[in-house]
Amino acid sequence: MIRCGCSRVVTDSNYIFTDLADPIRSFTHNYPDMLEDEFGREVRGVRVSLTDRCNFDCVYCHNEGLGDTRGPLDPQDDEMSTDDVVRFLEVATEFDVDAVKFTGGEPMLRADLEEIIRRTPDSMSVSMTTNGTFLPDRAEALADAGLERVNISQDAMDRDAFAELTKSGAYDRVLEGIDAALEADLTPVKINMVVFEATAGYVPEMVDFVAENDGLRLQLIEYMPELTGNPEWAIDIDDVHEWLAERADRIERRDMHERRRYWIDGGMVEIVDPVENPTFCANCHRVRVTHDGQLKGCLNRNDDLRSMGGMTKPEIRETFRATVANRVPFYGEYMVRDGMGEWQVNEKYV
Q1: Domain that holds residue 180
Q2: Consecutive sets of 10 residues in the chain, 350 residues long: mean pLDDT of each?
Q3: What is the CA radius of gyration of the chain?
Q4: Which helix (H) or strand (E) holds 140?
């Protein structure tokens, strides 16, 4: 058990890896109230989108799997209120969910973000994914409210390339945000880099950047054309694994998703490679909440969005149970290749 400076209590995930041959049933837990789907996956975490607004326009954005639906930067009427978000999290803790990650869009466009974090149940660990541009002014306040870790999107250590990828001139601001997160002890600060044709050449510089800065870790995220289109942008992620392996001082393999961690010159690099990786989906223990109060059981699936209605606790409980019960399995079963090699949804799950 770890007690954080914000007095928030974080517990270990408490799992035992038991059977590589059957990735769907690879974990056992000691959580009596936790919901479990029909494939044996318990839901231990939630990923809550607080808005679909964003001050960037990244070329690869899939907006939490919903597509590029971002509108004006001003607050929108369809966003969950502060009370709605907190009420949902309180219900989630009834099912022993012990972790929440706040996302967007850009979650820091919410003026009430500090309040939401402050009111998040103490039993939950709290992290956030952000583009980092607002962290220089708010990192300390967010940490004081109870935020523990951040993931910051940064796809190239090159100002011009960054501008082309994000349609933004905020390169220096993001670097300031990374520094602010480190100073506020929101560590480890994970740098999220989506790896595809336009960014692959910047991986070496990003690896060096992380190795030179204590407290940083690098997550190289496989490009997902089934969500964003432009399949011609995808690269073979195995080539990136091989490049890292040749340079690594040591390599670790996590039980969770069988992710490989590469330690290079003191820096840690991890690849998030969900495409055609059944183990990734088989060990997914998270459900997602859209900014407008709908639950979804899978990033790749939008045909099962379930509204939590008026966001009363009974409605939230009922929707949460239904969403977990209706979760789908991994690639190769839920998503299958057609004769042209394209991903299609298995009709069994339509």
Answers
A1: 2-349
A2: 32 31 37 83 96 90 64 76 98 98 95 98 98 98 98 96 94 98 98 95 97 96 79 92 96 77 96 80 90 90 88 97 90 75 76
A3: 19
A4: helix 135-145
CA–CA separation, 276 and 332 (whole Å) = 7
Task: State which H helix or E strand residue 186 sits in.
Answer: none
Residue type, 217: R
Rounded (5°) CA angle 253-11-188: 55
Q: Is 346 helix (H, G, I), strand (E, B) or coil?
A: coil
DSSP reduced 3-state for 59? coil
Q: How many domains does the chain have?
A: 1
Q: Which helix (H) or strand (E) holds 175?
A: helix 171-183
The CATH number of residue 88's host domain is: 3.20.20.70
Q: Which residues pair with 287 in a beta bridge?
A: 46
End-to-end CA distance of the chain: 42
Closest to 65 (Cα-Cα) out of 52, 79, 76: 52
pTM over cut 0.70: yes
**CA atoms of 268 and 333, how far apart (whole Å):** 32
Pairing type for strands 99-103 and 286-289 reads unpaired
